[in-house]
Amino acid sequence: MNVPPDASSHKRTGPARMIDVADLAGVSLKTVSRVINDEPHVSPALRGKVEDAIRRLDYVPDTAARSLGGGRTFTVGVLFDNPSPNYTMGIIEGAYRACLSSGYHLRIDHMDSSLEPALVRAQLDAIFRNSRTDGFVLTPPLTDEPMVLDHFDNLGVRYVRIAPADTSNRSPGVYIDDEEAGGRVAQYMWDLGHRSFGIVNGPSRHSASRRRRAGFLGRLVELAPQATVAEASGEFQFAGGIAGGARLLSHDDRPTAIFATNDDMAAGVMVACAQAGLTVPDDISVVGFDDSWVARSVWPYLTTVAQPIADMAATAVRLLLDRKRPVNGPELHKLDYHLVERSSVVAPPHGRGQG
To answer: Which is nearest to 111 in space by CA: 69, 73, 148, 75?
Structure first.
């Protein structure tokens, strides 16, 4: 008489292994892996044997075992070219959260897409050679770099873009309406009575920075075509915010309200105000963008636009891992933003509002 194998007869120390499941079920390792990965081409009978063995052994699959059957590495790559550490950390937080919940590892790579084309291609080749991933999340400005996107498309590599300006059919994407948010900041300042404005812009290569600027200036043009707006560049960096803020404050008709298109620069603008002997918000109101930890680490606390950076990254990872979607397609997911009012903005100083 044939007696079915008994889980208790498998002598082992430590947790059950995939080989233990295969032995108990009487199948190959590859069949076990296919069942674990919910792959097709496994008969119901074999699937039932494997699932029964998994239950009896209390087996917990690991990523190495899972990768054997489906050709997957269970690793997601995130590719950066962004000077803001706070933005970067927000992306990592969200991507890691989504990877952890799906049983994936997270790999992080940095590249400089501002270099000449041959060097950009060399960086991409090195990343692909040295990383085995199931796809990539691209962050700005890589999301809009044609050479980078072409490279991925030519290799058939899965990718999802965060905050793309190009909303064509290249790949899924996750974004907020940066232009509308910039306009919301302008309206907020105007409603408080400000009539002289400054803006510290991020890198021109970052489409989100361009859209925030366009929204801010566009709304002011609608409100008052003759409104005074001074501009400076801050490159999304704290030091750039100090330098850009100093330039704006040096104007004879200095602004009463300054919009910095990320929080790092806004914190730098506040330093520039202090260096010039001016007080925020009594002399100068300051608004940032992101609602990073910086916004709650400066004093006064920073009024800012909250964009869900971590949620954007988590959504991008989930889109990447959804195998029911095409490798690259037009699906775009829009997330919400909101203005967080804190203590860095008040009505303009007496006599400095114009109407």
So the answer is: 148
Q: Find out whether 121 and 144 touch, Cβ atoms under 8 Å.
A: no
Secondary structure of 295-310 in HEC code, one letter for each residue: HHCCCCCCEEEECCHH
pLDDT tens readout for residues 132-158: 888 999 999 999 999 999 888 888 888
What are the structure tokens assigned to 135, written together? 């796809």
User: What's this model's pTM, rounded to 2 decimal places?
Assistant: 0.79
113-125 b/e (C-beta count within 10 Å ≥ 16 → b): beeeeeebeebbe
Give the phi and the psi of residue 264 in degrees, each rounded to 5: -55, -45
Of 22, 85, 86, 87, nearest in space to 53 by CA: 22
Among the listed residues 29, 353, 16, the one whose alpha carbon sits nearest the alpha carbon of residue 195: 353
132 φ/ψ sector (left φ>0, alpha ψ -120 to 50, else beta): beta
Buried b (16+ CB within 10 A) or exposed e, 81-92: bbbbebbbebbb
